[in-house]
Amino acid sequence: EDKVVQSPLSLVVHEGDTVTLNCSYEVTNFRSLLWYKQEKKAPTFLFMLTSSGIEKKSGRLSSILDKKELFSILNITATQTGDSAVYLCAVVNTGTASKLTFGTGTRLQVTL
Amino acid sequence: DAGITQSPRYKITETGRQVTLMCHQTWSHSYMFWYRQDLGHGLRLIYYSAAADITDKGEVPDGYVVSRSKTENFPLTLESATRSQTSVYFCASSTQGTSPLHFGNGTRLTVT
């Protein structure tokens, strides 16, 4: 059974801080790892990672995958209150037709 | 506007009643999914569909029924609702098996 563990469970930081969110996984046949941001409603897609060591970047957010050690990190620099959300990590197994296995998420709160 | 729409947004029902949650997407995506989100469990897959008239079970299918007679619609039916089915339900779609999912805004279901 595929498994995704995210840490920390929750995090409170001050605006301007840099944060690192962790995602470790166990999957029988790895295809990809995805990061989503969930505010009050639907999760919104951030990154999809398939290759080890290649950083994906979008503005102040970046993510990298380590397929040897089976983990990924999501970095957010110069955090803003709008970054407050639950960040979800998910993995896709090659044999499961795009079915995602999600972690329970990291709740990030950015305070002024 | 193109997108994925769920209805209703909120639903309260009694134990034993049948209830159907609707999902409609305008992208003509092949794949559609139903997830439930509960504290401590994250998002868990209930059912998915690779195309019209093709459906398959996910991680937690018991007590649920789906159909996909048209590509754009993927209703989820709780045949006899139980309190354990109180949850937030998300519908999602994707173009291919390897593409990121796009989520609807969710239906909050309470079974009393």
Main features:
heterodimer; A: 112 residues; mainly beta; Immunoglobulin-like; five-stranded antiparallel sheet; 11 strands; 60% strand; B: 112 residues; seven-stranded mixed sheet; 52% strand
Overview in brief:
The complex is a heterodimer of chains A (112) and B (112). Chain A is mostly beta strands.
Q: What is the topological layout?
A:
The complex is a heterodimer of chains A (112) and B (112).
Chain A: E1 3-7, E2 10-14, E3 19-26, E4 30-38, E5 43-49, E6 56-58, E7 61-66, E8 71-76, E9 85-93, E10 100-102, E11 106-111
Parallel strand pairs in A: 2-11
Antiparallel strand pairs in A: 1-3, 3-8, 4-5, 4-9, 6-7, 7-8, 9-10, 9-11
Chain B: E1 4-7, E2 10-13, E3 19-25, E4 31-38, E5 42-51, E6 54-57, E7 64-66, E8 76-78, E9 87-94, E10 102-103, E11 107-111
Parallel strand pairs in B: 2-11
Antiparallel strand pairs in B: 1-3, 3-8, 4-5, 4-9, 5-6, 7-8, 9-10, 9-11
What can you tell me about this protein's structure?
The complex is a heterodimer of chains A (112) and B (112). By secondary structure, chain A is an all-beta fold. Chain A has one domain: Sandwich (Immunoglobulin-like), CATH 2.60.40. Chain A is built from no helices and 11 strands. Chain A has strands at 3-7, 10-14, 19-26, 30-38, 43-49, 56-58, 61-66, 71-76, 85-93, 100-102, 106-111. In chain A, strands 2, 4, 5, 9, 10 and 11 form a 6-stranded mixed β-sheet that branches. In chain A, strands 1-3-8-7-6 form a 5-stranded antiparallel β-sheet, with no helix packed on it. With 112 residues, chain B is mostly beta strands. Chain B has a single domain (4-111), classed as Immunoglobulins (Immunoglobulin-like). In chain B, 0% of the residues lie in helices and 52% in strands. Chain B is built from no helices and 11 strands. In chain B, the strands form 2 sheets. In chain B, strands 2, 4, 5, 6, 9, 10 and 11 form a 7-stranded mixed β-sheet that branches. Chain B is globular, with a radius of gyration of 13 Å. The termini of chain B are far apart.
